[in-house]
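Sequence, please.
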């Protein structure tokens, strides 16, 4: 199986005996806002780690319908519940076509993107896809760093999900990587 195929984002969570994934299934599959779900359980916060022009991966460019190598707006955040980092989110917005999303993203700061995506009636959400990230995936190292999981005890894989939101002629691709420490946050149990 090619490397690209092994790292593909899948439309279904493959059945697995991996007991380590079981607790994530519900978080991976939930189509509602992660922000709202965390806010309902504990003290929610967003820490912006990166918001700049960057180069999407070839796969991200393909999903967003832009030429490989063309820069796009990249936003990366850590989501907190009760002072514990629980999610690393990586969002890609093409520069073209410009539109309301360009301005909204630029002005978002440490407010949650989810609060916008799930409150404005003009957004549509595509299918959720899933991935078991490891060192071969471009998001793996940034996620380990953002989730503060580096070092000798670093996990060798992380569960992630991805979906594309549409607003008029614009699209934004949102990838969310879940911390294995999600289960040490009493409020989320
Ligand atoms: C899409 C949502 O927004 C969350 C917040 C994000 C941000 O502020 O950049 C990005 C992705 C999500 O984890 C959500 O709450 O479901």
């Amino acid at each position: 199986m090619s490397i690209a195929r092994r790292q593909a984002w899948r439309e279904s969570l493959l059945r697995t005996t991996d007991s380590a994934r079981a607790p994530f299934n519900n978080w991976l599959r939930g189509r509602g806002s992660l922000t709202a779900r965390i806010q309902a359980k504990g003290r929610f916060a967003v820490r912006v780690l990166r918001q700049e022009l960057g180069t999407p991966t070839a796969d991200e460019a393909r999903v967003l319908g832009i030429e490989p190598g063309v820069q796009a707006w990249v936003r990366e955040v850590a989501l907190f519940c009760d002072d514990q980092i629980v999610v690393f989110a990586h969002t890609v917005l093409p520069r073209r076509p410009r539109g309301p999303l360009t301005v909204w993203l630029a002005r978002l700061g440490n407010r949650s993107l989810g609060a916008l995506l799930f409150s404005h009636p003009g957004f549509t959400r595509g299918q959720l896809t899933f991935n078991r990230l490891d060192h071969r995936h471009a998001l793996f190292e940034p996620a380990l760093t953002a989730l503060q999981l580096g070092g000798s005890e670093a996990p060798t894989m992380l569960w992630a999900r991805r979906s594309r939101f549409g607003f008029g002629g614009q699209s934004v691709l949102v990838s969310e990587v879940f911390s294995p420490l999600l289960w040490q946050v009493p409020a989320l149990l």
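DSSP finds seven helices and seven strands in the chain.
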